[in-house]
Every structure is written in C-alpha cells, then in structure tokens.
Amino acid sequence: MQIYLDYSATTPPRAEAIALMQEVMVQQWGNPSSLHQWGERAAIAVERARSQVASLIQAEPESIIFTSGGTEADNLAIMGVARLYRQPQHLIISSVEHSAVSEPAKWLQELGWQVTRLAVDATGRVDPMDLQRAIQANTVLISVIYGQSEVGTVQPIEDLGAIAREHHILFHTDAVQVAGRLPLTMQQLPVDLLSLSSHKLYGPQGAGALYVRPGVKLRSLLEGGGQEQRLRSGTQAVPAIAGFGIAAELAAQELVTESERLRLLRDRLFEQLADVPELIVTGDRVHRLPHHVSFCLRCCDGQQFTGKTLVRHMNMAGIGISSGSACNSGKTVPSPTLLAMGLGDRLATGGIRLTLGHHTTADDVDWAATVLKQVLARLSSTCLLSV
Q1: Which residues, including other chains, have CB under 8 Å from residue 239's CB and lie 6 or more apart?
Q2: For the whole model, what pTM was predicted?
C-alpha cells in the first residue's frame, strides 16, 4: 500500500493540467512575444492562465507576474523592492520564513541593510504588537509568511498588513502553502505583494507568480526582453503557465469543500496520534493550514532517532512523509523554525510533517497512524536497548 502524505512539498499535477499542457505544446508552442498567429496563440494561452490565477485570489489579471516558482516570486518581491534604493534601508521579516525569504534578507544584511527578525511564540505565530514596535523611520518592506510550511501555523496577516498600511510600508507575504487551501481576496487583504506556486496546488513544477498590487513599484531581477510588464524578462514557459492556470481555476471551484474535507482528515489524524508519548504537536492547532499535521519527536538519541530517521522508516513501509521543509530535508541540522519556536537543538532535529491532499482518504489516514505508531514503538525499543 503506497500512501503519499507530503503534499506541502509538491502535489501531483492534475490530469486536466497535464492534458492542457500537452495540447499547448502541440498547438500553442509559439513565442508569446511574437506578433504573428503562432505567437498570438501562445499569448492567448498565457493571458487565459493569468486571468485564472488572478481569479483564485480575487485580483486583477494585470497584477499577476509569472515566475518560475515560489522561490523566484519571493526573491522578486524582496530584491525587487531593495533594488529601488541606492542606500541600505530597513527590512522586517519573521523568524520562521521560508529560506526563499530568509536567504535574500541575509544577503541584504551583508550589504548593509538592517534586518529585524520578529520573534514568534511557541506555536510559531507573530505578535502584531512586536511588528508595531519594530518599525523604524527607514523601514521599507515587511515580509511575513502566510502559512508556515513546516509547522502549519497561519499568521495574522490581516492584522500585520493593516499595521504596515498604517505606516505606508510595503507588505509581502509568501502564500505558497495557502493558495488553493484557504480563501485569498486581494481586494480586501492589506497585502501589496504575494507569492504563489503552481506545484503546490496540483499544477506543474516550474511555474509560479507574484501578485503586485497596482501602483506598487519594483525593479526587475533579470534584464532582457522585458516580458511580464518588464518585471520578469525571459520567454514565458507557456505549457507550465497554462497548467498552472487550469489548476488554479479548479482549485478555486473546489476550495470550500476540499478545505473542509482536509480539515476533517487532519483532525482525525491528530486524534489518532494524540496518545503517542513520542510525539509533541508543533504549530498552532487553531490557526492552522487545513491539510497540515506536524510533530517533533521525543528521542533518547539525537543522532539515531531524528525526523529523518522516521521518514526513512515510513518510506520503507510505503508511506511518504517529510522531516520538515523539503528544501531542508537533506540536512541533519536543527530546524531554524523549531528553534525560533523555543525548542532545543535535540527536539529541533526531530520535526516531522504529514500533509494531506486530493488523493488522501480516511483509510489512508488510519493506516498511516497505525504504521507510524508501530515504527515509533520499534525505534523507541531500540533506543531503550542502546541506553
């Protein structure tokens, strides 16, 4: 029995997205910047997708800038603002950002920028009052992740964005884990820049987008042909963008029912694992992504019994889970997110994540819980024997 429970890392592309991508590669393979009919057909595919992605977040199509994925969208937001300034300014981020935000911030700091990293509580949430106190006269951008990929915590983005707007400071959020799982209404949300990723909502890998509120200025990261309103030069990946578009449209249609279905399965899994002494719940149980279950492991040997150890054993049993953010899954180091939440080095190497999706059933959840308990019991016995 094969069960995939790593939907926060990537989702399988929908059959509709695959079919449309094949159609585009055969019939709309032209360069969308070309003026002839072949280029026009490709441009139509790109603009249709732009409207579909915009509809998912209740935005205007011209506010969508296509990128190669969420990482590029985050970089375009952070560095696109930074490049507007000749002199270093002040940037505020949270201490639980994805590396696509924290690494550009680190690089800016090396260039002389001031970077404030907001503390989080034990559940991984930012206190809006901490943001209020962190603002300086030269603060030009605030970036706080919407839904944390490793522990599932959803931030109070409306409150944080309102504070930024009150101070006339640009506000960016990485909504890669949220889009298609929770409603996003850009006409009401006080956000200026928002990152999206196709492969997190059953579209193909290699496509993403940055929402840019009308009137917000950025400097492009790439110089060249001036595509995407001169913010993202390079010939658009038309098939991937088309697949992204249809996936976004279908996600919007199914959002309410699928979010509730996933929430019920998520809570079912939490309940089945509630009495397992080796597991400590991480993240906020109330303000949480609907598909996300996460723990850290109580272990008697930090090297032998880590999150990665459990991932390997579950994989051998045919169940795919994650030891945290996919971008960090190859490193046996304490999770920066878990450290920021106040967990020590040993516990912070024991983070695991089980994320649910379209193909997850109640039987899958029940079997995964059973196998996880068996694996933990076996590993715990091994640890005890080695002491």
Answers
A1: 21, 22, 24, 25, 204
A2: 0.94
Strand partners, 171: 142
Query: Where in the chain are the domains?
Result: 3-9+255-386, 15-251
For residues 113 and 99, what is the distance between their CA atoms, to the nearest angstrom?
Answer: 18
DSSP 206: T
Q: Are 268 and 332 in contact (CB under 8 A)?
A: no
Fold of the domain spanning 3-9+255-386: Aspartate Aminotransferase, domain 1 (3.90.1150)
Catalytic residue among 296, 299, 300, 327: 327
CA 301 – CA 299 distance, rounded (Å)? 5
Quote the pLDDT of residue 381: 75
CATH number attached to the domain at 15-251? 3.40.640.10
H or E segment and range at residue 88:
none
Burial class (CB in 10 A: 0-12, 13-18, 19+), 297: buried
Mean pLDDT by 10-residue block, N- to C-terminus, for the chain (387 residues)? Answer: 96 98 95 94 97 98 98 98 97 97 97 98 98 98 97 98 98 98 96 98 98 96 91 95 98 97 98 94 97 87 70 95 63 86 90 97 97 91 50
- Determine whether 327 is an active site residue: yes
d(C-alpha 273, C-alpha 287), whole Å: 19
Assess contact for 172 and 142: CB atoms under 8 A.
Answer: yes
> Of 192, 184, 202, 199, whose CA–CA distance to 160 is shortest?
192
Residue 249, pLDDT score: 98
Cβ contacts of 70 within 8 Å, gap of 6 or more: 98, 100, 174, 176, 195, 196, 197, 200, 208
